Amino acid sequence: MTWATHDPEEGLVFVPLGGVGEIGMNLYAYGCDGQWLVVDCGILFHDDGAPGVEYLMADPSFLAERRDAVCGLILTHAHEDHIGAVAHLWPYLDCPIYASPFTMAMLEGKLKETGIDPPRTIVPLGGAVSCGPFDVRFVALTHSIPEPAALAISTPYGTLVHSGDWKLDPDPVLGEPAQEEVLRQLGDAGVLAVIGDSTNAQVPGHSGSEATVRTALAREIAARTGRIAVGCFASNAARVESIARAARDAGREVCLLGRSLHRVVEACETAGCPLDLGPLVSETDAGYLPNDRILFIATGSQGEPRAALARISANTHPNVSLGEGDTVIFSSRVIPGNERAVLDVQNRLADLGVEILTAREAPDIHVSGHPAQDELTHLYGLLRPRMLVTMHGESLHLEAHAKIAQSVGIQKVIVPFNGVVVRLAPGTPEKIGTVPSGRLALDGNRLLDRDSEILRNRRRIMYNGCVVVTLVVDGKGELPKPPCIAAPGLLDEAEKGFIADLAIDAAVDAVSQLPTKNRRQDETLQEAVRRAVRRVMHAQTGKKPVTYVQIVRI
Asked: Does 127 share its domain with 191?
């Protein structure tokens, strides 16, 4: 599908550039008669095929070409997969940013780090903002972070509800319950389409309440005598408060490990929803307390290598160590793709003699922040949309969500993919074309195309190694000294002599077989030597290394 027969600037369309077919990297665009509203701008942490990359984000090229028509960027909540790319991608959009108080407070630090200063407006939950042809109301829901908002987007063609990440927690321990009456009113007035979270569409029943977790954590913490560390998502402010309360009830002092935890606590204070953590103990003072009087709330529940739990497990944390008689509680789920990293941390902790407690052993120490099947059904009973467009999930999640929608009588269900353009109105809702989409990688302090030559070569080097051949060539095209061979990541010390000598002989033969005039042409000489050396390496190691030839002419 292309734009040969369809005009992307007419009518009401939905264009996901990231966040469909994957969990993370959310970037969605709504077009209305040539003007565009962007929702969320997040990152994706895990990608085995991009070694050395910090994280990935959606390619905004399609929107950058239309930046004069972008009315605004609205952020549904403060999770990294929804706001983590703003500081990097906002220059491509160059538009006002709208977010709730807590979400904006979390964003401010990221903006300061990069030095950009976009126009931004704080919108309280229940508030509204107008962006071109879009009138957007922030509807409060519940999630595993403060102030999650669904967006009721009114357009000349009808009302859309973009769910964001959500659940229906009947007893949230932080913030207010979901505004179900507002959702019902939207349904009464008529909802053209829901663009909805699919993460837990395969999970039967209800996602559970944070109040249940608070009770379970109090039980587990009270039952232990040694030092305790609890790993959780730093952004789950309600969970952090529950852990701190359980610690105090058990007669323990609380110490926060990880900068992101301190940032969340500060953001809650800034947003006017301070956490009830009680007095906190510093990392340096925590070591002076008896083992049964201290509890650490730690980052690193996803196995992040620089986070507190990973450093403790590797005995490299400057202030905290754990061992026999101590317990680490993982009050979190493992995000798909992080399984190996989390298991590595847990295994290292077990080697230290630490007891590990996860949701496998105590299921009620964690509940998901995303809706299970009963909540999805309930939402659609409130909104009664004519159409569902699935988002936020891998393919299995999207398809399961589609089946739920069909089972409750939603007339039209569309399962999109990143880069597709979905016509919502007027006329028959359908996929009508595609736009450029892809991934950008943050590599150090620069953005690269995920499929750039730099990263392709890095992947090849990771799997096949690298060989560097240095030739010294005189004015007659002769070699006054033998070539030098370096093969990092390919040859060990025992192999370097024999195999390197074979490669050097092959390089010398390749040069000698070239006519003198060709030896004076760098590209011809490089290619001949490259092929010869690579053949030797493949024959001796079974690998086809990335091979570079440097020529020094004297």
From this structure: yes
For the record, the structure tokens of 312 come out as: 């403790």
Taking only the tens place, the pLDDT of each residue in 303-332 is 999 999 999 999 999 999 999 999 999 999
The verdict on 286 and 166 lying in the same domain is no
Shared-domain flag, residues 192 and 328 = no
pLDDT, tens digit, for every residue of 370-392? 999 999 999 999 999 999 999 99
Pairwise CA distance, residues 171 & 142, whole Å: 10
Count: domains in the chain: 3
Domain holding 262: CATH number? 3.40.50.10710
pLDDT interval class at 8 (50, 70, 90): low
For residues 355 and 327, give the distance between their C-alpha atoms in angstroms, rounded to a whole number.
Answer: 5
Beta bridge partners of 150: 139
Q: Which residues of 219-243 are buried (b: 16+ CB within 10 A; e: fewer)?
A: ebbeebebbbbbbbbbbbbbbbbbb
For position 6, what pLDDT does the model report?
54
Number of H helices, E strands in the chain: 17, 27
The CA distances from residue 492 to 370, 498, 506, 546, in Å, are 49, 11, 20, 17
Distance CA 163, CA 194 (A): 7
**DSSP assignment of 506-548, as one string?**
HHHHHHHTS-HHHHT-HHHHHHHHHHHHHHHHHHHHS---EEE
Burial of residue 513 (CB within 10 Å: 0-12, 13-18, 19+) is: exposed
Could you tell me if 63 and 154 lie in one domain? yes
In a domain, 499, yes or no: yes
Q: Look at residue 262 and tell me if it is in a domain.
A: yes
Spell out where 218-322 has E strands. 228-231, 253-257, 294-298
Please write the tens of the pLDDT for every residue from 156-203. Answer: 999 999 999 999 998 899 988 999 999 999 999 999 999 999 999 999
Local confidence band at 2 (pLDDT 50, 70, 90 cut-offs):
very low
Q: How many residues does the chain have?
A: 554
CATH number of the domain residue 516 falls in: 3.10.20.580
7 in a domain, yes or no?
Answer: no
456 belongs to a structural domain: no
SS3 182: helix
**149 and 19 in a common domain:** yes
Q: Which domain holds residue 417?
A: 12-205+368-449
194/225 same-domain check: no
Distance, CA of 364 to CA of 526 (rounded, Å): 63
CA angle 259, 262, 267 (to 5 degrees): 125
Same domain flag for 440 and 474: no
CA distance 100 to 77: 8
107 and 239 together in one domain: no
Cα 368 to Cα 206, 213, 405: the distances in Å are: 10, 10, 21
β-pairing, 43-44 with 97-99?
Answer: unpaired
Given 329, 361, 393, which residue is the final one in a domain? 361
Residue 4: pLDDT above 60?
A: no
Tokens 């730099």 label which residue? 454
For position 141, which CATH number holds?
A: 3.60.15.10
Tens digits of residue pLDDT in 100-145: 999 999 999 899 888 899 999 999 999 999 999 999 999 999 999 9
